[in-house]
Amino acid sequence: MSASSETAGIGLTADMVRRMRTVLPAAWFPMTSPEALSSATPVMDGLLSGSGWAWSYCYALTLYVIQQTRIATATAGLLDMICSDFFGALLKRRGGETDDAFRSRIQANLLIPRATRAALSNALVTLLGRQPMVFEPSHAADTGGYGSPTITLGSSRMAFQYLVTVSSGAGWTKRASDASFIDGSGAMRIARRHVVRQLYVAGVAQGPLLEERGFNLIKDSAGWSTCLPATAGAAMQWVVDDGGSGALLSGQPQLGIAILGGGSVVGPSMSASADAGPVTGSAWVMLPSGHTITTLGLRIIDLTNPGNVTTQLCDPALVGRWQRITATLPVPGQVGRQIAIVLAGTASGAMQTPILTQCWQIEPGAVATSYIPSSFQVGIREADDPMPAGNAGGVPVDALGLYEAVGRVAPAGSIAWTAILG
Hints:
With 422 residues, this protein is of the alpha+beta class. Among the domains are: 8-27 and 39-68; 172-213 and 383-391, no CATH class; 216-379, Jelly Rolls. 20% of the residues lie in helices and 30% in strands. The chain is built from 7 helices and 20 strands. Strands 9-10-17-12-15 form a 5-stranded antiparallel β-sheet, with no helix packed on it. Strands 11-16-13-14 form a 4-stranded antiparallel β-sheet, with no helix packed on it. It starts with 12 loop residues before the first helix and ends with a strand. 24% of the residues are buried. The model is unreliable at 1-7 and 389-397 (pLDDT under 50).
């Protein structure tokens, strides 16, 4: 530690050295005068500094431990542990959420009233900033009676049940095309145009998945019209399955890759023109049970500079399930270069069942985003700009976690029918 950083602040090394020096017998060691340019006891100063550093570390650690024992001051992973102790899997930190914002939600949920109509209304007002409409069919004050300005049909058979109508204001986006997302089980799903997608981390919903406008540089990536010939040491061929049997993306063609012998396997391949920045490729594959593949990866190659290449391997133990392979070419190149994406690996012998692959993508940048089918043109990814649900029609999705909010305060044994409006 530099001398400039060693002040007499409480708990620092210099403070600990000063404290130890003051309890030593004054007659044992000479004192250094204030105007002296060097210490009169350099050897002792070195010994005390070593102990002082250790005590300073213990002091700082003690302060840190005290800080982590309270919700109001805990930070980082310790705050997540406190939340898990209180709420288990019911309350999680959202993607990119700061400690202060997460702490506020923890404190709000610790003291939240539950099991009452007022609690339900307060939870939704806190979440949305708008008052919900709560209707209990067996509550006379809600249904009204003869002589009331309004009468709503009730039912004595619907005890402990209620209807909630809320306005979410964010159930739809301006994305004008279908788009994929990974659900809580890790499987890819397709959300139709305008529908908000959920972002899951470790199987836990983090809120809406909102992506900026982007591109899939492969032309006709669903039709496979630009597949290049394979170069393989082993016999290898593939067939376009227009029926999409077992397809990841229903209704779209996929490739069935047959391995007819052992050795290296390379192909199929697609290429696209890209700019000078990083490029990321991705593809979904499904290995059959009993396959002979020893290695299989996605290779991204700069055809204008073949030495610029990267490969990401798939998991050969994952059979009978779709898995996504992504690889990023971080080294920059010239503008307008050709980027090839190809499956490459080795096989120990022939296979009876083909490998299936679908949903190939090449995109600018260092992150593999969701897949959007392209057809005879560069696939333009529409931005997920939120918009009011009423502008799109249909049934909005629960992008703001309304069902979770209702579930945390709902009376035990009740049934909630919740309508989410734009």
